[in-house]
């Protein structure tokens, strides 16, 4: 849509990558298992402090911190995966936090006040920090790369990380239907293929051709027999020829 409404240039690889990402995401959304029914904030707290989810949160924190401090300052403006990886991984934790905080608000509205539990404020703090981080680097990605590229890659990365976090958080797929499982696997493969095509399209667009680079235009003063002509735009080959003509024109006068 960015190529049509925002007049952005998207080559054939980019369009194929967007189509693959869209198809893969549709498969994931249609065949993703549903969440477990949680009624209290204590239930979701018990799930959040499980060892595997704590390990996932620790890995996301370490990887995101390393990318933010080491990789983003040097490669963030040339590789869209740098900013997108930060948004997607941190965003998966924000989804889990907003689910927990949403349950707390729902129960509080129903008469059971959940704001007396410290865990409610913990989930709220995590939600604010992850959301601010996610929006910050998403805006940076939108400012450096085309919207069509960023939207497709972010949609795929965010969906993949969120589903992975949900599987770890709820300790399983919550389904035994092999058709849904195979469709999810196909969706993941299509998403990875689409990301690869989008990255290749960005690389092909950002690397200009080097053909015809032997003729270098520059500004250089030239001493001609008729006088000095400064700031003439010409090529390096023509400059050498002009110097040769100038030297040959001044030698007879010096000999006489």
UniProtKB/TrEMBL annotation:
InterPro entries xrefs: Mg_trans_NIPA
Domain of life: Eukaryota
Keyword Cytoplasm: no
Transmembrane helix listed as a keyword: yes
Localization of this protein: Membrane
A GO-annotated cellular component: membrane
Membrane topology: Multi-pass membrane protein
Keywords: Membrane, Transmembrane, Transmembrane helix
Entry's Gene Ontology molecular function annotations: magnesium ion transmembrane transporter activity
Bilayer-spanning residue ranges: 12-32, 52-69, 81-101, 121-138, 150-172, 178-200
PANTHER family for this protein: DUF803 DOMAIN MEMBRANE PROTEIN (AFU_ORTHOLOGUE AFUA_1G15880), PTHR12570
Protein name (Swiss-Prot/TrEMBL): Magnesium transporter
The organism of origin for this protein: Penicillium salamii
